[in-house]
Amino acid sequence: MSAPVETEPQAASPQCPAHRSGDLFPLPGSSYRGPAPRYQELREQEPVVRVRTEGGVDAWLVTRYKDVRELSADPRLSRARACGPGAPRVGGTMHTTPEMIISLDSPEHSRLRKLVAGAFTLRRVERMRQGVQQVADQLLDDMQGRQGPVDLVQQLAVPLPLTVIGELLGVPAQDLRDFEKWARAFATVDDRAGGEESLQGLAKLSEYIVGLVADKRAAPADDMLSELIAARDNDDRLSEEELVTFGFTLIGAGFDTTANQLANSVLALLADHPGQWRWLAEDHSRIPRAVDELLRHVNLFATDTTGFPRIAAEDIEVGGVTIPKGDAVLLSLASANRDPAVFADPDRLDLDRARNPHISFGHGVHHCLGKHLGRMELEIALEGLLRRFPDLRLAVPESELPWHTGEINHTLTSLPVTWGEQA
């Protein structure tokens, strides 16, 4: 039996000029439901187009699946040049520090990735399944005991990946509450507040992780941080700074993105596709394929791109256009995931989609190291919700849901849900 077909609500198409330099990035109209409507026109008419960014500099915006995938793996596009001194400030994107793994080019990137990749293999992640299941069950037990309505963001979407990341790093149980507070502040980007809360979280986390690395070095335990401390390739190993920086990267990428993806996926189903929620509840074997479709369909990035600009290290020809050396390039994963050349009826949520080569985890050398863990957490969380709350529904009108502004991701502040006979 195929998943029920439901019509996807369409946002009104903005009136954007069609000429080559008329668009300001980020494009207006993006939401968790999908990328800005303008991307459809760009894929058809100008798949590689020069846009003006909020940072005041021009950048090339790439929108077709084929081009985005190829450029994601093209070594001529440099992440390091986009993060170094004097790099163009492309507004609406995430600015990472030069020493982070997502900011490096080869050979530095290859060296660091080789040292840490063993901690994220599918086999190792599968060994974690029972522990992740226990964390999810405890959170869902508490949720079920509250009898609704509850805030799914605070009850499940945030604490599940945060607890898992804390346990991965070997954070002692008595420190998890402070760890969660600092990590949440670190992952929150709010331009209106000047980033003060995020900086405070960064400072607290930095001090804590430095101490944690020292503790694990003195007394190794069965956790990923201890494994990374011990990891070596011949005589090479991670430096102290690299260990601390990787801890930050793991927190930002492994907690915040998973939390937002889970909350937005549940919202997409409950608000627009309640029939598909019930369809999943009928047969939980459908969940893995559904998770991949939700990863493709639900738009995580508020800018519709990876959030990480790149710089052309030499002239690059793509889509009939030459991108000159030194120019900034933005790759729209959200647009690529809606490309009709790859995905049949791409704007429809099809939880039974058989062929789904989405690139939500990126592609090439910078593809997400934690993709196996993120996918597993989403599967476990959705299975638990569907098993216990097959009649889950929003407790407030969707128009009343609060969204955090200034985020790189589409981030719900809260998601009140209820079930059973509650009003």
UniProtKB/TrEMBL annotation:
Residue ranges, annotated region (Disordered): 1-36
Keyword line: Heme, Iron, Metal-binding, Monooxygenase, Oxidoreductase
Highest taxon, organism lineage: Bacteria
Family the UniProt entry places it in: Belongs to the cytochrome P450 family.
EC number: 1.14.13.-
UniProt entry tagged with the keyword DNA damage: no
Family matches, as InterPro entries: Cyt_P450, Cyt_P450_B, Cyt_P450_CS, Cyt_P450_sf
Primary enzyme class: oxidoreductase
GO terms of molecular function: heme binding; iron ion binding; monooxygenase activity; oxidoreductase activity, acting on paired donors, with incorporation or reduction of molecular oxygen
Name the UniProt record assigns to this protein: Nocardicin N-oxygenase
